[in-house]
Design brief:
By secondary structure, this protein is α/β, with parallel strands linked by helices. The chain has three domains: 13-259 and 311-360, no CATH class; 421-454, no CATH class; 457-540, no CATH class. It is 35% helix and 21% strand. The protein has helices spanning 47-61, 85-91, 95-120, 191-203, 227-245, 273-279, 285-299, 332-341, 363-368, 370-373, 390-402, 419-428, 461-473, 508-517, 521-531, 533-540; strands at residues 13-14, 20-26, 32-38, 68-72, 127-134, 138-140, 154-161, 167-174, 187-188, 208-213, 219-221, 250-251, 256-266, 307-317, 321-326, 329-330, 347-350, 359-360, 435-438, 445-448, 482-484, 505-507. The strands form eight sheets. It has a five-stranded mixed β-sheet. A four-stranded mixed β-sheet has the order 13-14-15-17, covered by helices on one side. A three-stranded mixed β-sheet has the order 2-3-4, covered by helices on one side. The longest helix is centred in the N-terminal third of the chain and has 26 residues, at 95-120. The radius of gyration is 25 Å and the shape is globular. The chain starts with 12 loop residues before the first strand and ends with a helix.
C-alpha cells in the first residue's frame, strides 16, 4: 500500500473502490485527446510505464501518444504501482512483495490500455463548457517557513453534455494533497477526491465524475486524520463543482491543439563512488537504502542522472481554455505564477500529470529547503536537490507551448521551416518521432520531442568521436597511437573490420574514420573502451 513510508503492513481491505476514468475528446474532422484520471499515488508510475501504456493504446486506437494525458489523484491509500528505486527506498519491498507489485503492474497496464480503447470506441456528440468554483479546505503545510504560505482554492470544472443537454461527465480539480487519512489507515480509498467523485455521482445519476489534481505539492487538507473528515472535504468539493454547474459556463470552441515537450531540470552534482562509500550506515533507514541503491548503480558502471527531462503538456481549446499539465509533485507557486503571467488567457494548471518523478519546488521553496525543497528526493530514488533555475525553465516551456506558433518552430523571422506542415506530419505519425533542426543562416530552429530519449543505434558514434577529440585536446589520448583490435571484440554489424581475417592494427584516428565514414561497429567498440562509456554518456547529455 503506497503513500506513507511508516506503514508496516499491506492493505487489509477496501473503504471504497479506486477508479481510473478516461475522457476522449475529438474535434469534428480534427484532433483527438485522451484525459485519464487515476486514483493512484503516482510516485511509482514512472515514464517507462506511462510510455508503455501510451504506445499500446496508440496501436489500438490510432491516437497519437502525445495526445494522451495522465493525472494522478495522489491518494496515499492506494497500491504501489511498480517496483522502482523510489519504491525500494520507501517501502523496502521483499521478494514476495515485489512479485505481487510486478503482477499488479501488468494488470494495471492492461486495464489502462483497455480503458482508453473502450472510451475511444464510444464517442458520441457532446458539448464542452468551463467555469470555476471555490473550495477552502486546502492549507499550506510549510508553516515552519511561512505561516501564511500561498494556497490555491480554485475549483476548475469542465462540463460534458450530450443530446438534450444530458450531463455525461464532469472533470473537476483541486490543488491539495490527498492526505486527509494518515498511515494508520490500511484500507484502499481515494481520500477526499474519491469521496468527492462518489458524492457527485450520487447526486447526478448517470454522470461520470473525474478528479484532476492541481499543483498541491505543498498543501494538505485541514482538518484531517479521520474518515469523516475525508468525506466532509469530498462533499465540499463535490458541492463546489455542482454549484458551478448551476451557474453560467463558457462553451469551449476549437480548434483543439495538443502540445507536448520536455525541458531538462538539472540536479546538483551526483555523489562519487568514494562519497557514497563514506555515507554507508549514515542517516536514517531511507538515507541508507538510497546510498546502497546509488552505490550499486555506480559500481555496475552506470552514471547517476545529471538531470530529469521534465514534461509539459498543453491542451488548447481555441482561445476559450488551455489546460497546462505539469509533471511531478508541483507546488502551488506554479499555478499562481502561470495564471498571473497569462492573465489574458483562461488557463487550468494541473500538477501530478504523466510522471510523478519527484517534488518540483519553485525557486522560493527550493531556497527555503525542507521536504518539498529537496528532502524528499530520496523517496523517489534520486540524489538531489535540483539546481536553481528550474522554475523559469518550466514556466518558459509552458509559454512556448502556449504560443500560437511555438517558439521552437519559429525562432527567427522568415523561418525556412514549413512549421504547419511539419507539425501535421509529426502529429499524424503513429510511431515515436524526434528531431531537431537549426538553420545556420537564420538561426531558426525546429524541434519535435528534442528532449525525449530514443535508442541511439549508430547515433552513439557521434558522442564517441566528440569525446575522443576532447580527450586528445586535453592530452589524455594520442590520436596517432596504434592499437591492435582486441580478439574479444566480436565480429558484428557494418563496416570493413567485420570482413577482415588478418590481425588489425591502426591509429585511433583511423579507427575513428572507419567509425564515422563507414559506420564500423567494431571500431566503435574499441574507441568506447579507450574513452570510457561514462565519458560518452557525458558527451550525450
Amino acid at each position: 500500500m503506497g503513500g506513507f513510508a511508516a506503514r508496516q503492513h499491506p492493505a487489509t481491505g477496501i473503504l471504497h473502490p479506486l477508479w481510473a476514468k478516461a475522457l476522449v475528446i475529438e474535434e469534428v474532422g480534427g484532433q483527438r485527446v485522451v484525459l485519464v484520471t487515476m486514483d493512484l499515488l503516482g510516485d511509482n508510475f514512472g515514464r517507462e510505464l506511462a510510455d508503455q501504456v501510451r504506445e499500446r493504446a496508440a496501436r489500438q486506437t490510432g491516437i497519437h501518444t502525445d495526445h494522451m494525458l495522465f493525472n494522478f489523484s495522489h491518494t496515499h491509500c492506494g497500491p504501489v504501482s511498480s517496483v522502482n528505486d523510489g519504491a525500494l527506498v520507501t517501502y523496502a519491498l521483499d521478494s514476495e512483495q515485489q512479485a505481487k507489485v510486478n503482477a499488479y503492474t501488468i494488470t494495471l497496464t492492461d486495464k489502462l490500455v483497455g480503458l482508453i480503447s473502450s472510451a475511444a470506441a464510444k464517442l458520441q456528440p457532446a458539448q464542452l463548457a468551463y467555469a470555476t468554483g471555490r473550495a477552502t479546505f486546502a492549507s499550506n503545510r510549510r508553516t515552519r517557513y511561512n505561516p501564511d504560505g500561498p494556497v490555491d482554492h480554485e475549483v476548475p470544472v469542465l462540463r460534458v453534455t450530450g443530446q438534450g443537454d444530458r450531463l455525461l461527465a464532469v472533470l473537476f480539480g483541486y490543488a491539495c494533497h490527498n492526505t486527509t487519512l494518515g498511515g494508520s489507515l490500511d484500507q484502499y480509498n481515494g481520500d477526499y477526491a474519491g469521496f468527492a467523485q462518489i458524492a457527485f455521482e450520487q447526486d447526478h445519476a448517470g454522470a461520470m465524475a473525474m478528479f484532476m489534481m492541481g499543483c498541491g505539492g505543498d498543501s494538505n487538507p485541514a482538518p484531517r486524520g479521520e474518515v469523516a473528515l475525508a468525506e466532509q472535504h469530498g462533499a465540499a468539493l463535490a458541492a463546489a463543482a455542482a454549484q458551478v454547474l448551476d451557474g453560467e459556463l463558457l462553451p469551449l470552441q476549437g480548434p483543439l491543439k495538443v502540445r507536448f515537450d520536455r525541458i531538462d531540470l538539472s540536479f546538483v552534482d551526483p555523489p562519487t563512488q568514494l562519497e557514497l562509500e563514506g555515507r554507508r550506515g549514515q542517516g536514517n533507514v531511507y538515507d541508507q537504502r538510497l546510498t546502497e541503491i546509488l552505490l550499486r548503480r555506480v559500481t555496475n558502471g552506470e552514471s547517476l542522472p545529471a538531470s530529469y527531462p521534465f514534461p509539459v503538456h498543453v491542451v488548447r481549446f481555441g482561445k476559450s481554455l488551455s489546460l497546462i499539465a505539469l509533471a511531478g509533485e508541483t507546488v502551488v507557486d506554479y499555478a499562481l505564477r502561470l495564471r498571473k503571467d497569462m492573465a489574458d488567457s483562461r488557463i487550468w494548471v494541473a500538477g501530478y500529470c504523466n510522471e510523478v518523478f519527484a517534488y518540483v519546488p519553485s525557486e522560493r521553496v527550493l531556497a527555503e529547503g525542507g521536504y518539498e525543497g529537496g528532502g524528499a528526493m530520496k523517496y523517489f530514488g534520486l540524489h538531489g536537490p535540483f539546481q536553481p533555475g528550474l522554475e523559469d525553465r518550466i514556466v518558459g516551456l509552458a509559454h512556448e507551448l502556449m504560443a500560437d506558433d511555438p517558439a521552437e518552430g519559429t525562432a527567427a523571422v522568415g523561418s525556412p521551416f514549413p512549421v504547419a506542415d511539419l507539425d501535421r506530419l509529426a502529429e499524424s505519425f503513429a510511431g515515436r518521432l524526434g528531431f531537431y533542426a537549426r538553420d545556420l543562416a537564420s538561426g531558426a530552429t525546429y524541434a519535435w520531442h528534442a528532449h525525449d530519449r530514443f535508442p541511439p543505434a549508430s547515433a552513439i558514434k557521434l558522442p564517441v568521436m566528440i569525446q575522443l577529440y576532447r580527450q586528445s585536446v586535453a592530452g589524455d589520448v594520442d590520436l596517432q597511437e596504434k592499437r591492435r583490435l582486441p580478439a574479444d571484440i566480436s565480429t558484428h554489424g557494418t563496416g570493413p573490420l567485420a570482413r577482415r581475417t588478418d590481425p588489425v592494427e591502426m591509429s585511433l584516428e583511423d579507427y575513428c574514420r572507419l567509425m564515422i565514414i563507414n559506420s564500423d561497429n567494431m571500431a566503435t567498440d574499441l574507441l568506447i573502451r579507450v574513452v570510457g562509456m561514462d565519458a560518452v554518456n557525458g558527451s550525450s547529455g
